[in-house]
């Protein structure tokens, strides 16, 4: 065999090995890389890092890393000062606008829900309008963390118009700690729902929102909330034990 022929045959495995190495490097060595083989290359470029996250620190380069870091941010963001919170809220807002992963958007909503006051409200509003049920459910839970007029209005609107029963129920649970008239009115309307589970949840949430207990009959609750004279049934010992434990 000539030297030229040997060189041609020897180059084939080397070329194949180099090709495999390039592909593995582009994907970060991760099987099923969600962002495609160009993501790691884009993340290494400061231009892409800034415009993807709009923050001085970017989340990780793989889906697992980003999810882990965003979950950690949700735990920590409440302890940051206003300036640092504002920086991360800008990044979270960008996640809501651009990230295709519902789990990443859910975690962004969770993190925003741990920030007190109006700065996070825009992210929670986007969460309530998200196409993913689990993102909207997380937004309901986050809105329930703070008793503000804006939060109650968003939750009450979900009770009245949400097409997903899971999201509707999440909004009703979030209203049980809100004692405003708007919260009570939204739960009162839910008493007329044909779904027995929705009626039962409305009664349970009304007990929390009103501090009253008119039993388990939706019609009795409606009468009481409409101002008709209705007496609260005496609390049974078994019920008292359930409240304690």
Word description of this protein:
This protein has helices spanning 3-26, 39-44, 46-53, 63-76, 82-98, 102-112, 121-128, 133-143, 149-161, 165-175, 181-190, 196-210, 218-225, 237-244. It has 245 residues and is an all-alpha fold. It has 2 domains: 34-129, no CATH class; 144-226, Leucine-rich Repeat Variant (Alpha Horseshoe), CATH 1.25.10. α8 runs parallel beside α10 (165-175). It is elongated, with a radius of gyration of 26 Å. Residues 2-57 have low confidence and may be disordered.
List the helices and strands and how they pair.
Layout (H helix, E strand, L loop, with lengths): L2 H24 L12 H6 L1 H8 L9 H14 L5 H17 L3 H11 L8 H8 L4 H11 L5 H13 L3 H11 L5 H10 L5 H15 L7 H8 L11 H8 L1
């Amino acid at each position: 065999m000539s030297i030229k022929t040997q060189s041609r045959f020897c180059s084939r495995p080397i070329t194949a090995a180099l090709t495999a190495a390039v592909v593995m490097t582009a994907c970060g060595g991760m099987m099923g890389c969600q962002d495609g083989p160009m993501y790691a290359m884009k993340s290494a470029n400061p231009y892409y890092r800034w415009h993807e996250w709009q923050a001085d620190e970017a989340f990780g380069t793989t889906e697992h890393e980003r999810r882990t870091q965003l979950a950690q941010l949700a735990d920590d963001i409440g302890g940051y000062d206003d300036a640092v919170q504002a920086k991360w809220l800008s990044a979270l807002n960008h996640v809501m606008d651009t990230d295709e992963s519902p789990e990443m958007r859910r975690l962004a909503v969770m993190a925003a829900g741990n920030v007190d006051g109006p700065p996070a409200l825009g992210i929670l509003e986007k969460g309530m309008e998200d196409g993913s049920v689990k993102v909207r459910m997380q937004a309901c839970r986050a809105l329930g963390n703070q008793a503000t007029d804006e939060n109650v209005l968003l939750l009450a609107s979900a009770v009245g118009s949400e097409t997903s029963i899971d999201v509707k129920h999440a909004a009703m649970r979030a209203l049980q700690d809100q004692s405003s008239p708007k919260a009570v009115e939204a739960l009162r309307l839910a008493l007329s729902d044909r779904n027995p589970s929705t009626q039962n949840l409305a009664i349970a949430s009304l007990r929390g929102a009103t501090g009253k207990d008119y039993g388990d009959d939706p019609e009795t609750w409606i009468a009481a909330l409409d101002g008709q004279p209705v007496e609260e049934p005496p609390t049974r010992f078994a019920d008292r034990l359930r409240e304690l434990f």
